[in-house]
User: Fold this.
Amino acid sequence: MEKYFLTAFVFAAITGHAQIKQGTITYEQKTDVHRRMQDAQMKAMVPQFQTSKSELIFSDNISVYKALLEDNAPDPFNNGGGNVVMIKIGGPGENVVLYKNYSNQKFIEQTELADKPYIIDDTIKASSWKLSDETKTVMNHPCKKATMKTERGSDVTAWYTEDIPSPVGPDRFGGLPGAILLADINNGEMVYTATEFNNQADDKELQEPSKGKHITRTDFDKKLDEMFGPATPDGRRIITHDN
Assistant:
């Protein structure tokens, strides 16, 4: 049995639950960088899989998502020569914070460009999830399946748990009647898997980002295009030279 679920109304639907209302979830993100590459030479320059960790902190109707930096981690894009090839496909990078307030649909991204901090003012976009009765267990939590297709045509499968009745999830995903513990984009192209959970949330970490110049998403994307050229299906390529 399947039904459709519009994320814009999720907050009103979950506030009555007397279950876990706050916590911290750690995710591992694994990306198949080669999936969309057509250039054999480019494939040879980077490893097929990129892995990273991120942290989602939430309390009631607010969540903050950011990358977890690993000390002394090798650069997976260093090809051993004078160039560093960097391909950004998804997930927050270093110094990026994704802030969501589900009560007023506010979405703020704190980021950097050319060593300048920016605050991108945006709204949480409603997504039409298709809910299913199919279940699986993730980190000992019973989860239900939900699927959707993004504006860019990507197929997303999410597994959410009503044990944690908060509309949160990794990266820009969310809006379901429970926290997303596993998200698969395009059948393995990018997979977010929850690896740790605790029911503590630091209130200091849940403050609205304030470091940087305010800018709209459209204007920020224009700046990216001016500096690096339009994004390609492979991602946005940035090649720099080591000194």
Observations:
- The chain has three helices and 15 strands.
- The first helix runs from residue 10 to 14.
